[in-house]
Amino acid sequence: MADRGAAAGPGAGAILAPFAALNRELSIVIEDSAGRRVAGTSSEPPPATVVAREIAAGPFAGGRVVGWGSLANTPLAEASIASLAVALGIAHTVGRGGIADIAAARLIDDELALGRELQRSFVGLVGPEVPGYDLACYYEQAHQVGGDFFDVFRQRRRGRPLSVVIADVTGKGVAAALLMAFARPVIHAAIDNASGPVDALDRTNRVLRERRSALFITALCGSLTLSTGRLRLANAGHEPPLIVRRDGSPIEPMDATGPLLGAFESLDLVEAVTDLAPGDAAVFYTDGVTDARSTTGERFEDARLLDAIDRARHSSAVDIVDSIRNAVETFQAGMQPADDITIVAIGRRARRARRQGVVPGVAPGAG
User: Fold this and answer.
1) In Å, what is the CA distance from 151 to each residue of 9, 31, 299, 338?
2) Domain ranges of the chain
3) Burial classification of residue 303, based on how many CB atoms lie within 10 Å of its CB (0-12 exposed, 13-18 middle, 19 or more buried)
4) Which of 14-28, 214-228, 266-280 has the lowest mean pLDDT?
5) Cβ 71 vs Cβ 16: under 8 Å
6) Helices (H) and strands (E) in the chain, counts
7) Which of 13-27, 31-45, 58-72 is least confident?
8) 365: pLDDT strictly greater than 50
9) Over the stretch 168-194, which tens digit does the pLDDT of each residue have?
10) DSSP classification of residue 58
11) Is residue 237 within 8 Å of 260, Cβ to Cβ?
């Protein structure tokens, strides 16, 4: 369990507590500017080699958040440690009642701005290179720190299938960002050790249930076999991905949904399966897209999303994402987004015609 002694001060124990479930794989300790331990998920002293991030504000300014273990050197764990350092500064500044003080308010703004930059630095806006496929991503936070997250990465198992995760924390602001920072490495580790998408979300749900947060997570987890185009999917309360066929047939949702992560002991998810033929695409998104508002308060909704996708259906994944993004921005007409927006598109490239070198009816960039 996390050390919640008085020396930790208000907020530090609560911020660290969710990470106690990962203690075997990722131990985290807070040190003050003199290198003394003030809180942690492990009673063991840090080893010689650790991942550390300096705390820039609050009572522990000049101290560090230190992490070690089998997950410590992964990009997601490093990003979580960095987010914790920012969160500690924010929590302690707010805890002192300094919001009414101009200097304290500026400090909070600075910390939140840093948190935003840290989040953007570990959100993979550029997908991995995948032969035969186009990948494109778009991410925009509605607040200075956000609760959407996604990952597109090659799994380490045989055949190296492509894993896709897109999720949305139910809250907003700092609380949602902290749960996001905690959940990202949990889901990533679950996928690496699970038999499939349903098992991965079940494993994640068990960890989230242990921490009993007031916030929950909607999540999609997909596994794409690159050689065949087979997409296996599990859905925990999230918007279903949209399957776009090259033959011009109606865009269809990949339906299969269950409860939110962290809300119930058992998810009872059912795996959905579809095959992406050459020229087909899958579009994943969060509800920040369909919930976008115009200056009159009207919602963007599903019909406009489908229309934006349809306009770019014979182009690349990048064009599909750009079409959705441009449609949302035009619809909002400068309005501040009410929620985080995440869009991910994966397109299987169409086969080239042997003689002409192009596929008739498909715009350049689709192959």
Assistant:
1) 34, 31, 27, 23
2) 6-118, 125-348
3) exposed
4) 14-28
5) no
6) 7, 14
7) 13-27
8) no
9) 888 766 667 777 777 888 898 899 889
10) S
11) yes
Of 256, 230, 227, nearest to 241 (Cα)? 256
Number of other CB atoms surrounding residue 174 within 10 Å: 23
82: which DSSP letter?
A: H
- For 126: left if phi > 0, alpha if psi spans -120 to 50, otherwise beta; the answer is beta
CA angle, 117 then 118 then 121, to 5°: 85
CATH architecture of structural domain 125-348: 4-Layer Sandwich (3.60)
User: Helix (H, G, I), strand (E, B), or coil: what is residue 120?
Assistant: helix
Distance CA(154)–CA(161), nearest Å, equals 6
What is the 3-state composition of the chain as percent helix, strand, coil, each rounded to the nearest 5?
A: 35, 25, 45
Strand partners of residue 51: 67
Q: What per-residue confidence (pLDDT) applies to 119?
A: 47
Banded pLDDT at 243 (limits 50, 70, 90): very high
Cβ-proximal residues to 231 (8 Å cutoff; 6+ apart), any chain: 222, 223, 224, 225, 254, 273, 274, 275, 276, 282
Q: How far apart are CA 334 and CA 296, in angstroms?
A: 12
In 18-161 the beta strands, taken as DSSP E runs, fall at 27-31, 37-40, 51-54, 64-68, 133-140, 148-154
Q: Which amino acid appears at position 67 of this protein?
A: G
What global pTM score does this model have?
0.67
